[in-house]
UniProtKB/TrEMBL annotation, chain A:
<dbReference type="Pfam" id="PF00486">
    <property type="entry name" value="Trans_reg_C"/>
</dbReference>
<keyword id="KW-0597">Phosphoprotein</keyword>
<keyword id="KW-0804">Transcription</keyword>
<feature type="modified residue" description="4-aspartylphosphate">
    <location>
        <position position="51"/>
    </location>
</feature>
<dbReference type="GO" id="GO:0000976">
    <property type="term" value="F:transcription cis-regulatory region binding"/>
</dbReference>
<keyword id="KW-0902">Two-component regulatory system</keyword>
<dbReference type="GO" id="GO:0000156">
    <property type="term" value="F:phosphorelay response regulator activity"/>
</dbReference>
<dbReference type="InterPro" id="IPR036388">
    <property type="entry name" value="WH-like_DNA-bd_sf"/>
</dbReference>
<dbReference type="InterPro" id="IPR001789">
    <property type="entry name" value="Sig_transdc_resp-reg_receiver"/>
</dbReference>
From TrEMBL, chain B:
<dbReference type="Pfam" id="PF02518">
    <property type="entry name" value="HATPase_c"/>
</dbReference>
<keyword id="KW-0812">Transmembrane</keyword>
<dbReference type="InterPro" id="IPR036097">
    <property type="entry name" value="HisK_dim/P_sf"/>
</dbReference>
<dbReference type="GO" id="GO:0016301">
    <property type="term" value="F:kinase activity"/>
</dbReference>
<feature type="transmembrane region" description="Helical">
    <location>
        <begin position="182"/>
        <end position="201"/>
    </location>
</feature>
<keyword id="KW-0902">Two-component regulatory system</keyword>
<feature type="domain" description="HAMP">
    <location>
        <begin position="209"/>
        <end position="254"/>
    </location>
</feature>
<dbReference type="InterPro" id="IPR004358">
    <property type="entry name" value="Sig_transdc_His_kin-like_C"/>
</dbReference>
<protein>
    <recommendedName>
        <fullName>histidine kinase</fullName>
        <ecNumber>2.7.13.3</ecNumber>
    </recommendedName>
</protein>
Length: 228, 505
């Protein structure tokens, strides 16, 4: 993916830049709002990572509002040290697609960037079913089959699996799951998400030869079709 | 009249007397509220007294005049009657007679013949001012050694005789003296009262404000425990508000102090640990793998510190009361069901049973996110401290107000609602329960479990944000944590509009 990174702190910038390049992305960078805005308007990106507070009079929200004002719908991920719920709401209201607060784990940022990039591609047509390898989800009848065998899932388990399937091949973090599947925005101290994922595995992976839901150490989970 | 006492009007009224100061702006020179108050009151009183006495003066003089005129008329009538019977002689005798019998010495007569000779009476001669007959004159005449006002009326008699009947009205002068004197005395006494009153009122004001000022200056000097003593007077309203404000400031200060202590202690510990680990790895790691493990641990410690910061900031933010902007109508039934669903799995994973005991709750006006967070903290705690194979209970029910006879016809509305989480863990002793909501407080028995000691502080902050109470009770075994959340009028109103009920209030 072609990514624009606008961040003024040199350490954070080089850290993110290095990580994204290692993940195989093509990254342009800017260290102030003016250059960032210039690039965001002039070039075509798959995703823009914006720091909220930038030197030079133009901050992240200004850039975001400007490009949205030009009907530019490039997914934008806001990066900020402001962790306040209201700040998050402000950012999303201004047209941001996701919000990551500093300090962050790189795996979290990468997972969210890739999820956003994916979203830009396949949101065109409403699907009635999702298929990954031998797993099929019927979105209308809420039926799940693997290898032709029917799997009974609770409504929440279905939503969890659906989210994993929609982001198949990408790492999804626990926070992402809590936010997107449960719509909760707090940090649970116990391993609630792990427990739900392991229950899902019991039903989706256990009865079959190969597992499709994998744990990624220090990051989260990934659903990958079984290799033949 | 009462209007005169209100300050703006009062001020305008005095403007013409106000002095000009250097800037050319007019300003009433007296600043003391007590003196101004008394002065205004005195002036008002003086004006009322003058008006009142003027009225008395006017009505009694007119009464006196009427009386005198009537007396003159009847007297003249009778004298003319004498004339008709006995002529000038009889009239003269009658006049002399009357003058002799007139003890008050206020009757005035003059009878003259056609040549202008005085036949009888006590007037020395015909007053020059009296020109018309049958007309009342009020003149000042000289009698003996003094001058006095008098009413006269002249009558023409047959054969060119003329008669004057008059009446000395020095009684009116007397009355006027009395009234003037009264006015003067009134003024003197009112002035004295006003001055005395001013002093008393000023003293009262000073004493009222003094107590507040003393407390405020004590607080300004750093003694936050000083409070205004309540006296039962009107200033108690201010005093109570100020006291409440001071209590709040005190609590906030206490919070800040606690936080700084906590930062000094509870944040330094993980920071030190992370630092030591990194340092040790730097010096003694012999393989990249060892280094990796150490760095990994350090990152974990830093994440823990970040978590503490986040929790502290959130608590501070909630306590500042700024988050009430996010209040909406919250469906607690849905919230509890979702929360139970989320945690039921982790309870089961820990070998626990999550029992639900939930009755339908009314809608609450609150912050959904915060309530979720608070409930999550309680459930996290309960799971953390429960022994294996025990039961957790999440219960919720509305709290009804005690029925009173006055509103029997009104359908009973709940006063608030209670949500509680009960575990069968080690519980807390009474001393710990009292301190449980303090930041970073961790019971002795909880020292070895992971956590920051901020969970309940956050729950406490969220509860306070909703004007509720956090109650910890020993459940033997275990601990029961109860949130009491009162139902606010906003929620009631909206609840009423969504569910049609007959509205009697």
């Amino acid at each position: 993916m072609r990514i624009l990174l606008v961040e003024d702190d040199p350490t954070v910038r080089s850290f993110v830049l290095k990580g994204l390049k290692e993940a195989g992305h093509n990254v342009d960078q800017a260290d102030n709002g003016k250059d960032g805005l210039y690039l965001a308007i002039g070039e075509k990106y798959d995703i823009i990572i914006l720091d909220r507070m930038l030197p030079g009079g133009i901050d992240g929200l200004n850039i975001l509002e400007t490009i949205r004002g030009q009907k530019n719908n490039t997914p934008v991920l806001l990066l900020s040290a402001l962790s306040d719920v209201d700040d998050r709401v402000d950012g999303l209201r201004a047209g941001g697609d996701d919000y990551v607060t500093k300090p962050f784990a790189f795996s979290e940022l990468l997972a969210r960037v890739e999820a956003l990039g994916r979203r830009g591609h396949n949101e065109s047509a409403p699907e009635t079913s999702l298929t990954v390898g031998d797993l099929t989800l019927d979105l209308l009848s809420r039926e799940v089959r693997r290898n032709g065998q029917k799997i009974d899932l609770q409504p929440r388990e279905f939503r969890l699996l659906e989210f994993l399937v929609r982001h198949a091949g990408q790492v999804v973090t626990r926070t992402m799951l809590l936010e997107k599947v449960w719509d909760y925005h707090f940090d649970p101290q116990t391993n609630v998400i792990d427990v739900h994922v392991s229950r899902l595995r019991q039903k989706v992976d256990k009865p079959f030869e190969t597992a499709i839901i994998h744990t990624v150490r220090n990051a989260g989970y990934i659903l990958r079709p079984a290799q033949d | 009249m009462a209007k005169d006492r209100t300050p703006p009007r009062h001020r305008r009224w005095f403007y013409r007397f106000a002095i000009r100061n250097g800037t050319g702006k007019r300003r009433w020179p007296i600043r003391s509220a007590g003196i101004n108050f008394a002065l205004g009151y005195g002036v008002l009183f003086l004006i009322s007294a003058t008006l009142f006495l003027s009225f008395i003066w006017w009505s009694s003089t007119s009464l006196l005049n009427d009386h005198v005129r009537a007396f003159i008329e009847t007297d003249a009538q009778e004298l003319r009657h004498r004339w008709n019977h006995g002529g000038a002689e009889a009239l003269g005798d009658a006049i002399t007679d009357r003058l002799e019998q007139n003890i008050d010495d206020d009757a005035l007569y003059l009878l003259m013949d056609r040549h202008g000779r005085r036949l009888a009476g006590n007037l020395p001669g015909w007053p020059v001012a009296i020109k018309k007959m049958n007309h009342f004159y009020e003149l000042t005449i000289r009698r003996y050694t003094f001058t006095t006002p008098a009413q006269f009326k002249a009558y023409a008699l047959p054969h060119g005789f003329r008669l004057i009947v008059g009446h000395d009205i020095r009684g009116r002068t007397l009355l006027s003296t009395v009234i003037t004197r009264t006015v003067i005395w009134c003024a003197v006494m009112i002035s004295l009262l006003a001055v005395g009153g001013a002093l008393v009122v000023r003293d009262l004001f000073r004493r009222m404000v003094g107590s507040i000022a003393r407390t405020a200056s004590a607080v300004a000097n750093g003694d936050l425990n000083h409070r205004i003593t309540l006296t039962g007077s009107e200033t108690d309203l201010v005093a109570e508000t100020v006291n409440t404000m001071l209590d709040r400031i005190n609590r906030l200060m206490e919070g800040v102090r606690q936080v700084s202590n906590a930062i000094a202690h509870d944040l330094r510990t993980p920071i030190t640990r992370a630092r030591n680990q990194l340092e040790e790895a730097l010096f003694s790691a012999s393989s990249p793998d060892e280094l990796r493990v150490a760095v990994d641990k350090a990152i974990g410690d830093l994440d823990h510190i970040t978590g503490i910061f986040e929790a502290l900031l959130r608590i501070a933010q909630i306590e500042a009361g700024a988050r009430r902007s996010a209040f909406t109508i919250v469906d607690l039934n849905q919230l509890l069901a979702n929360m139970a669903e989320l945690y039921e799995a982790s309870a089961e994973d820990a070998g626990l049973k999550l029992k639900l005991n939930i009755t339908t709750l009314p809608a609450l006006f609150g912050d959904e996110r915060m309530l979720q967070q608070a409930l999550a903290n309680l459930l996290d705690n309960a799971i953390k401290f429960s022994p294996p194979d025990s039961t957790l209970t999440l219960s919720a029910h509305p709290v009804m107000a005690a029925a009173t006879s006055s509103n029997t016809n009104e359908r009973q509305r709940p006063l608030g609602l209670e949500i509680s989480v009960q575990d069968q863990g080690p519980g807390m002793n009474d001393a710990d329960i009292l301190r449980a909501h303090e930041r970073f407080f961790r019971a002795e028995s909880a020292r070895n479990t992971p956590g920051s000691g901020l969970g309940l502080s956050l729950v406490q902050a969220v509860t306070s944000l909703h004007h509720g109470r956090l109650i910890l009770t020993q459940a033997n075994p275990g601990l029961k944590v109860t949130l009491f959340l009162p139902l606010t009028p906003e929620a009631e109103q909206t609840g009423r509009s969504t569910t049609p009920t007959q509205n009697t209030s």
